[in-house]
Automatic annotation (TrEMBL):
A GO MF label: lyase activity
Protein name per the record: Glycine radical domain protein
Pfam families: Gly_radical (PF01228), PFL-like (PF02901)
Domain spans labelled PFL: 1-640
PANTHER family listed in its UniProt record: DEHYDRATASE YBIW-RELATED, FORMATE ACETYLTRANSFERASE 3-RELATED
InterPro entries: Gly_radical, GRE, PFL_dom
Residues covered by the Glycine radical domain: 647-763
Keyword annotations of the record: Lyase, Organic radical
Species for this entry: Anaerostipes caccae (strain DSM 14662 / CCUG 47493 / JCM 13470 / NCIMB 13811 / L1-92)
One annotated Gene Ontology cellular component of this protein: cytosol
Keyword Lyase annotated: yes
Modified residues (Glycine radical): 740
């Protein structure tokens, strides 16, 4: 594969899971083209400057130009469009650094018409050599072992992104824009030639320009406004004038400042807003500056703006837990936020409750009520387990660990202190099928074992022979994963500084360095693993039926798998009937845990050896467990070729047959010290979850008391999902947990719907 063909294979196609339907750009196609051309020309013109100055000049093309008009019901200002070319942190909102999303540019080309074809083609040709992800892909991707995200033909996928940035919005509110500007100026006095500091200062001036533009938009909206709307617009205008230079003094001002900063920074997760906004809320209510209804309305407006960004797996807002400066005021915010979440029933924000033994009972009950009404939020994180686990896994002290926050599909970072973006994913089950087939992927017939010698089945006289050879292949792919993760940082750092994110992260301004250039306090990473439980169940079935009971030979099982069990229905029945993870069976769970710890410890140690603060696996799935399943051959647990894999560390659908207690007992056995987030999902009917709340509470609290770290819950009536698949028009707002994220059920692809439906529904 050479030249144009190679370039196309590396850069075209989907970059992320986009389930939520995007809101169309407000600008005409011609306007969009002109902006993309100006951005491209600016990038070209400033190519000889340092990366920081070029970044600022390119951002000036986008901001405030890409801000949308203020909508009628907005109580917080700030809506932002995105184009196929621009600047960003994550693929959910375009791309990474200076980006071009090539398949979206092609779609744009079809929409704008043939008379503009040459102009669009020039953009395409330029960004083939300058898009940050394309540069990363050319260096890292291979013919057979490493594919781009999302290319499920490969056992390992790699990407470049700065996912999950959780900034020090507390600094922003405590200092205000003016205070941060003064702080940067002071640092420049001590280091006048520092390009990063000077460009950071320019970025803050650009934020003020954005605020000026929002004021103009508000004045335009005043024309013809009703008296009640005029009062709302006047408040927004007054508060924008205030926060342009001064630190916020009210609940509304603080929300507004955080929101605008998040937009220009390209950050799509918002962190522990309860600890930041709680004191403003309580103060305003106590002084009579706002009513509870007004506070509710402001927060609902923020929730709506987050939902309208349509980032699918993000929008994290976290409340509760250890390490808060203002726990009482934060709890008041949490109560209000739970109420808004329950009433809105949005896909985003991904509203999250960190709880511990000190969490007020009424907040727990409100959370249960929200889940019981079908909101799918809050997701639940157990601080009494997670804080000590994060201390060990990330090698940090308790004070830092108490600031852990989950992002995306439950990966952990330390708010304001760490980068831990999940840029590597690998498929444990595909690697097992390759091990059983002499290094050749049975799905497409390609050799994917690299330099590892895969034994012939006849050489695998014992289970340990097989397991050891499989671990050799895992070792090889773990080596590839750390190299890919580290190079993603190196590649991004060569091109951009992510100025707005760096400004609000420890210790970038203090060190005078951007976050990937030695500025961030803790540089870590996460590695998403898939098919974990299918793999351990497959290994157990082989161990039991081949090496212990001698019911079949390894060759016979392999032959059946290679034929996708056609003509081998009896053998498949035996495989399916083998004991499975999720039923609190010690021997089965021990093997699952052994595999988990081998991979988790191996990934972690490779990160430490490479100089990262941490590199931890995330037992995730978003919907990639289904997408990767489509390209994974049949497996010895009885799973058919192309079928979805198990979700995260949950049992494969239909395998958990011993009730919710047994399932939760299996889930809690994985030692959380070795992972950086793990998804546990359960489905209940309203009958069992709401009408027998005492038993439900006992079930969940017992799970958490005995080591459960996390739980995501969907409450849905029996038969509703099946009916929604047949009659989607009847269920436009039915929300389900896919796993690391929620989604409107009818927006999911059919096989993703099938996977969600196939999970046990406890009634």
């Amino acid at each position: 594969m050479k030249g144009k063909e190679m370039k196309k294979s590396l850069i075209e196609g989907e970059q992320n899971a986009e389930v939520s339907v995007k809101i169309p750009c407000e600008k005409s196609f011609v306007e969009q083209l002109e902006i993309m051309e100006l951005y491209t020309e600016t990038h070209r013109r400033y190519d000889s400057l340092c990366k920081e100055k070029r970044e600022v000049e390119c951002l000036k093309v986008l901001y405030p130009r890409m801000f949308r008009k203020i909508e009628e019901k907005d109580l917080i200002v700030g809506r932002l469009d995105f184009l196929p070319i621009g600047f960003g942190c994550v693929t959910s909102l375009g791309g990474v650094g200076h980006y071009c999303v090539f398949h979206k540019l092609r779609e744009f080309e079809r929409n704008i018409g043939k008379e503009y074809e040459n102009r669009v083609e020039k953009l395409f040709e330029y960004w083939e050599d300058h898009d940050v992800k394309a540069l990363f892909c050319r260096h890292v991707l291979t013919e057979t072992t490493i594919g781009r995200f999302i290319d499920c033909d490969y056992p390992l996928m790699a990407t470049a992104r700065l996912s999950g940035m959780m900034l020090h919005y507390d600094w922003l509110c405590e200092r205000g824009i003016g205070g941060i500007i003064e702080h940067i100026r002071d640092k420049i006095k001590a280091d006048p030639g520092n390009d990063f500091l000077q460009s950071s200062l320019d970025a803050m001036y650009l934020l003020q320009t954005v605020i000026d533009d929002q004021q103009r938009k508000l004045k335009d909206a005043c024309a013809g406004a009703s008296d009640s709307r005029q009062r709302e617009l006047d408040l927004m205008l007054k508060d924008l004038k205030h926060i342009r230079s001064s630190k916020p003094e009210t609940f509304h001002q603080a929300i507004q400042l955080i929101w605008l900063y998040a937009l220009v920074a390209g950050c799509i997760n918002y962190g522990r807003l309860d600890d930041i906004l709680g004191p403003y809320l309580v103060n305003d209510l106590r002084k009579g500056l706002i009513t509870e209804d007004e506070a509710y309305a402001y927060l609902k407006s923020l929730w709506t703006l987050i939902e309208n960004r349509r980032t699918t797996v993000n929008g994290r807002i976290i409340v509760g837990g250890y390490g808060r400066k203002n726990p009482k005021e934060a709890d008041e915010f949490a109560r209000l936020a739970i109420k808004v979440t329950k009433d809105c029933k949005y896909v985003e924000p991904q509203f999250t409750l960190r709880f511990n033994k000190e969490t007020p009972e009424d907040i727990w009950n409100m959370a249960m009520d929200s889940l019981g009404e079908g909101a799918t939020y809050p997701t639940l994180y157990n601080d009494d387990v997670n804080v000590p686990a994060v201390m060990y896994g990330m090698r940090i002290d308790k004070e830092a660990a108490e600031q852990y926050v989950p992002l995306g599909c439950t990966e952990f970072v330390i708010q304001g202190q760490s980068v831990g973006t999940p840029n590597i994913l690998f498929n444990l089950l595909k690697l097992l099928t390759i091990t059983l087939n002499k290094g050749i992927d049975p799905f497409d017939g390609k050799y994917k074992a690299g330099p590892v010698r895969i034994k012939d089945l006849s050489e695998m006289a014992t289970f340990d022979d097989l397991y050891s050879n499989y671990k050799e292949l895992l070792d090889y792919y773990m080596d590839l994963s750390i190299k890919g993760q580290c190079y993603s940082y190196e590649c991004m750092n060569q091109e951009v500084s992510f100025l707005f994110t760096s400004i609000l992260m420890d210790d970038c301004i203090e060190r005078g360095k951007s976050l990937l250039d030695g500025g961030v306090r803790y540089l870590g990473g996460t590695n998403e693993t898939y098919g974990n439980i299918n793999t351990s169940d497959s290994l157990y079935a082989i161990k039991k039926l081949v090496y212990e009971d001698h019911t079949y030979t390894l060759e016979e099982i392999h032959e059946a798998v290679m034929h996708n069990f056609e003509g081998y229905e009896r053998l498949r029945k035996h495989l399916l009937e083998c004991d499975k993870y999720g039923n609190d069976l010690q021997e089965v769970d021990d093997l699952a845990n052994d595999l988990y710890e081998y991979v988790a410890k191996g990934v972690r140690q490779r990160g430490i050896d490479a100089g990262l603060q941490y590199f931890l696996i995330v037992i995730s799935n978003n919907q990639v467990n289904t997408e990767w399943g489509r390209c994974t051959a049949a497996s010895p647990d009885g799973r058919l070729s192309g079928m979805f894999m198990n979700p995260a560390n949950n049992p494969q659908s239909g395998a958990a047959k011993s009730g919710p207690t047994a399932c939760l007992n299996s889930l809690r056995k994985f030692d959380p010290r070795y992972h950086g987030g793990s998804v546990q999902s359960m489905k209940f009917t309203p009958n069992v979850f709401n009408n027998d709340r005492k038993k439900t509470n006992m079930l969940l609290k017992t799970y958490f008391k005995h080591g459960g770290c996390h739980l995501m819950i969907t409450v849905v009536d029996k038969g509703v999902l099946e009916d929604a698949q047949k009659h989607p028009e009847k269920y436009p707002n039915l929300i389900v947990r896919v796993s690391g994220f929620s989604a409107v059920f009818v927006d999911l692809e059919k096989d993703v719907q099938d996977e969600v439906m196939a999970r046990v529904l406890y009634d």
